[in-house]
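Fill in residues.
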């Protein structure tokens, strides 16, 4: 089994030499093939030159992928996964806050039959108001919404089996939701407590605005995991609900007209009921169009709507 460690890099020139030393120290006791893929995400400092030096020191251990410009952490992670070739992929940050000494712990948990092992920064060394508290609230929201209960979605330090990653395509800022996609693909997920250290060099690249992005991304994840194969359930449900409310309003207006002789056409509720009926009907049509798009997506690319874990064929005598 080969291990690929993927490290997205953005302006981390001072951290990279020490990080590589720690990775080497963590991997030395393990009898396995391994390498590190550093993905430079358009850094403005000397990160690329530092990675070149690390490659010169250990050409059999270091791989570099350098972007032309900054594309974001998700794109860096996706490129690292695609360019690496290990049977197991471990993701970690380049800022020395993740501890490479936890890699054996992740692998030990992975050997128990799990497809994803997520790190949990139980004793997180970040600003509580701007980083820890918003992250805690986001983790609660994601866990309750998706049904995949993890304490720390934002922890980059995670271990994945290659086969579970091959069924996942990453876009936008979706890297934190990989465990959700893995669960949807039938993966088994576990979580272990890992170390977390204060940042030594440089500054954090994320602030409170990241929480807003997480909430917006959550809507996308919910749709893709629950309704991507049956979008009519979402659009049709909304459409039928609006039409039902419209019918109830119209019925109430008719009863009020008979009982109290109140004009139906003169009431603003009549316009509201008509508008809700039209919106409901349009939602149904959108659902049908989404069904056609979904079928075109799968059939044009010969994609399957299922994922097979294992196949055992009957033995046949020669």
């Amino acid at each position: 089994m080969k291990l690929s460690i993927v490290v997205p890099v953005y302006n981390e020139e001072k951290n990279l030499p020490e990080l590589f030393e720690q990775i080497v120290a963590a991997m030395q006791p393990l009898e396995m093939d391994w390498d590190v893929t550093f993905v430079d995400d358009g850094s403005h400092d000397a990160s690329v030159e530092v990675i070149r030096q690390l490659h010169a020191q250990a050409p059999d251990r270091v791989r570099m992928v350098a972007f032309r410009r900054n594309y974001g952490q998700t794109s860096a992670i996706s490129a690292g996964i695609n360019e690496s070739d290990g049977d197991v992929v471990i993701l970690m940050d380049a800022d020395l806050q993740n501890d490479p000494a936890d890699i054996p712990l992740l692998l030990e948990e992975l050997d128990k039959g799990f497809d994803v092992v997520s790190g949990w920064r139980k004793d997180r060394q970040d600003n509580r108001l701007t980083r820890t508290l918003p992250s805690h609230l986001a983790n609660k929201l994601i866990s309750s919404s998706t049904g995949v209960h993890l304490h720390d979605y934002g922890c980059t330090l995670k271990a994945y089996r290659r086969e579970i990653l091959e069924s996942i395509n990453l876009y936008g800022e979706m890297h934190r939701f990989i465990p959700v996609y893995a669960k949807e693909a039938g993966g088994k997920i576990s979580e272990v407590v890992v170390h977390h250290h204060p940042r030594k060099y440089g500054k954090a690249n994320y602030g409170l605005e990241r929480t807003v992005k997480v909430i917006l991304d959550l809507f996308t994840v919910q749709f893709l995991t629950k309704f991507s194969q049956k979008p009519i359930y979402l659009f049709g449900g909304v459409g039928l609900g609006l039409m039902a409310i419209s019918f109830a309003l119209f019925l109430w207006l008719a009863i009020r007209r008979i009982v109290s002789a109140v004009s139906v056409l003169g009431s603003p509720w009549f316009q509201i009921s008509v508008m809700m009926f039209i919106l409901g009907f349009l939602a149904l049509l959108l659902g049908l169009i989404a069904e056609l798009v979904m079928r075109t997506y799968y059939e044009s690319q010969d994609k399957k709507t299922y994922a097979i874990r294992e196949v055992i064929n009957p033995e046949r005598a020669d």
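The chain has a mean pLDDT of 86.
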